[in-house]
Design brief:
With 386 residues, this protein is α/β, with parallel strands linked by helices. It has 2 domains: 6-249, Aspartate Aminotransferase, domain 2 (3-Layer(aba) Sandwich), CATH 3.40.640; 252-385, Alpha-Beta Complex (Aspartate Aminotransferase, domain 1), CATH 3.90.1150.10. The protein is built from 13 helices and 14 strands. The chain has helices spanning 34-38, 56-69, 80-91, 106-116, 160-170, 182-185, 220-233, 239-249, 252-271, 290-296, 313-322, 344-347, 369-385; strands spanning 11-13, 16-18, 73-77, 97-101, 122-126, 142-148, 173-177, 195-198, 213-217, 276-280, 303-308, 327-328, 338-342, 359-363. A 7-stranded mixed sheet has the order 3-9-8-7-6-4-5, with helices on both faces. α2 (56-69) packs parallel to α8 (239-249), α3 packs across α7 (220-233) and α9 (252-271) packs parallel to α13. The longest helix has 20 residues, at 252-271.
Amino acid sequence: MKKEDPSSLPSRTGGFRSLSPAVWRASTVLFDSVADFTTRKERLFDGYTYGVTGTPTTRALEERVADLEGAKHCIATPSGQAALCLVAMALLSAGDHVLIADSAYGPLRTFAHDYLQRFGVQYQTFDPTAGAEIAELVKSNTKLIFLESPGSITMEMQDIPAIVEVAQTAGVRTVLDNSWASPLGFQAIPAGVDVVVEAASKLLSGHSDLLLGTIATDDRGLYEKFRTAQSVLGQAVSAEDCFLALRGLDTLELRYAHQCDAALEVAMALSEHTLVREVLFPPLPGNRGHERWARTFTGGGCVLSFVPELSPEPKVHRFFDALEVFLIGASWGGVHSLAAFYPAKELEKRAHCRITDGIVRLSIGVEPPRKLITDLDQALDLAAKA
């Protein structure tokens, strides 16, 4: 019988019991003796030293996410972007070279261009549909390969197993932003990825009300580097946010199942619409990247994109104005469905983007899929007539 996760058990304080985990707030951590105080840094990785590295509420979240990821270690960070940057800062030095998928989160590429280069780290983006051929880009000083599969806007799929094999042969670490699928859709640590980052603000928390990131790994040495960097860089996480994420995790499986099924239903409806040129969603049969997704992933995602047959661009704006159920906003994974627009001129900035027209991205919430499809249909029709 599997041992229950301590974070899921009722909290106990004296005779008081609750189904809700306790929220431990602290900047100062108290010690029983001066000897404990002077040796506190020895417990940086397995105990409590100062509030910046967490409280029991933080540890409860980290342990629960590590279990979901199939990993031994996890660190919570203030956001998904903070997690990506912390990994880079902990593992890269002047003279190193890093590869980043061209479809990766935009601020990560900005961080590489504006900051890592300034610190003497070379970076290079690669085709987000790459597989084993990425070996041609690996140099003697390559230290990290940042993956994001699928890309959260253009939905390209990398061949993760092939890239992992190349990286392991070359002694290069792999880092996967797994926020689209979550560990329910793909457990990357057991698949050989060295480091997995989640924007826990999204699917894991599920209610669009907090910013949070996580870093998971099986490697104790990497974990210690990440925890040290978290402490030195002051990457503190709010205990209240950890509590909200723990509460969100209680409904993750239910939300994920509904949202993935609904996203596929919406994608199928859009693929048959005369005003939709192309649907970008790997779980959709026949879609670009579907074979790679089906071979590696066990679950879908709640984010999809499509290229509308609406020109000029003011018609696209009319489409958004006509939406009644979908709200306009970034991010995904919450209970409310969202829509966002990425103009062609923004996509043109990328070096390896096959999409040359504006993209509408949808985040599917927990509303009935038929309601969402009806909303999209009426908004597309009104925009076409504008």
